[in-house]
Specification:
345 residues; mainly alpha; 8 helices; 65% helix; 0% strand; receptor; phosphoprotein
Length: 345
């Protein structure tokens, strides 16, 4: 039986393996908690038996990352919420992404607090489910944004119709509905608290649960890659059509096309580099592997939530203009802003 329930656990917790059995008494006659080690390896978990001062640096880094993620995305959520002009489908999806990443950052902070300050199996399970739901919603929102960008190019003439708005709302419902269901699975019993052998590299998630999450990510990544390849083809075709109409491909059109394709490559490359190592390790990793491997692959995955607001929000000139209003209290007319459409990459 697992002795704890949480998402992350320092490998240093096993240092107490050199101590005697858990029933040993200290000099004052008070029972001393013991943790029996096996080969110095363990998966990540929260341990309710560690003293508060035994803090793993990896957990501190994750907590700091969570704080940065929460602050970055809180600004985006506030800007979109308080700016009436940012109500188009594109900004609704960006708001969904920022909300998911904001919750993920808060979840990382809460995980640290519940690991070292408030230790409870029930609360830890809720925290795990909260993190799973948040990161799932983040990845799913990225997929929804990709679909929106593809539709804005493929159906440019009908993009701003009510049908598109309905499609966006349906995508949001599915995104958050699926994320909530996946987040509830560990809380409702799909965990390894009663069966240590079924634990994955991220306790208390079971191997089958983590495999399901990894398979879902691979599916999303393949769909996104396919859509971005189609977007690149559409962008290049549009540039070719403009060249035929003007009898030559001007330097500005060439630069714009090259920039668009490069941006798409950066978007999908950043997403893949952030999540693929952790998703692959979730499949091939084993419970007995050193927990440092899990930390080393999980940390880049959290960085994706740190990069998302930079790629999808802060580069957008309408959001930049809203930030001027929010932080400066006025809009400086000398700063030039150009309205962007979802197809602008």
């Amino acid at each position: 039986r697992c002795n704890s329930a949480a998402l992350l656990n320092p490998a240093a917790h096993l240092a107490s393996a050199e101590m005697n059995e858990s029933g040993a008494l200290n000099g004052t006659g008070v029972p001393v908690a013991r943790i029996q080690a096996s080969d110095g390896n363990s998966s990540l978990e929260l341990s309710s038996q560690l003293p508060v001062f035994a803090i793993n640096p990896w957990d501190v880094v994750l907590c700091i990352s969570g704080t940065i993620i929460a602050c970055e995305n809180a600004i985006v959520v506030a800007i979109i919420f308080y700016t009436p002009n940012l109500r188009t489908p594109m900004f609704v999806l960006i708001g969904s992404l920022a909300t998911a990443d904001l919750l993920a950052g808060v979840g990382l902070i809460l995980n640290f607090v519940f690991q070292y300050v408030i230790q409870s199996e029930t609360i830890s399970l809720i925290t795990v489910g909260f993190l799973v739901a948040s990161f799932t919603a983040s990845v799913s929102s990225l997929l929804a944004i990709t679909v929106d960008r593809y539709l804005s190019l493929y159906n440019a003439l009908t993009y701003y119709s009510e049908k598109t708005v309905l499609c966006i709302h349906m995508m949001l419902i599915v995104t958050w509905g699926v994320s909530l269901c996946l987040g509830l699975l560990p809380v409702l019993g799909w965990n390894c608290l009663d069966d240590y052998s079924s634990c994955s590299i991220v306790r208390p998630l079971t191997k089958s649960n983590l495999t399901l999450l990894s398979a879902s990510f691979f599916l999303v990544f393949i769909i996104m890659l396919h859509l971005y390849i189609k977007i690149c083809k559409i962008v290049c075709r549009h540039a070719h059509q403009i060249a035929l109409q003007q009898h030559f491909l001007s330097a500005s059109h060439y630069v714009a096309t090259k920039k668009g394709v490069s941006t798409l490559a950066i978007i999908i490359g950043t997403f893949g580099a952030s999540w693929l190592p952790f998703a692959i390790y979730c499949v091939v990793g084993d419970l007995d592997y050193p927990s440092v491997y899990t930390y080393a692959t999980l940390l880049p995955a959290t960085y994706n939530s740190m990069i998302n607001p930079i790629i999808y929000a802060y580069r957008n000139q309408e959001i930049q203009r809203a930030m001027w209003v929010l932080f400066c209290g006025c809009f400086q007319s000398k700063v030039s802003f150009r309205s962007r459409s979802p197809s602008d990459v």
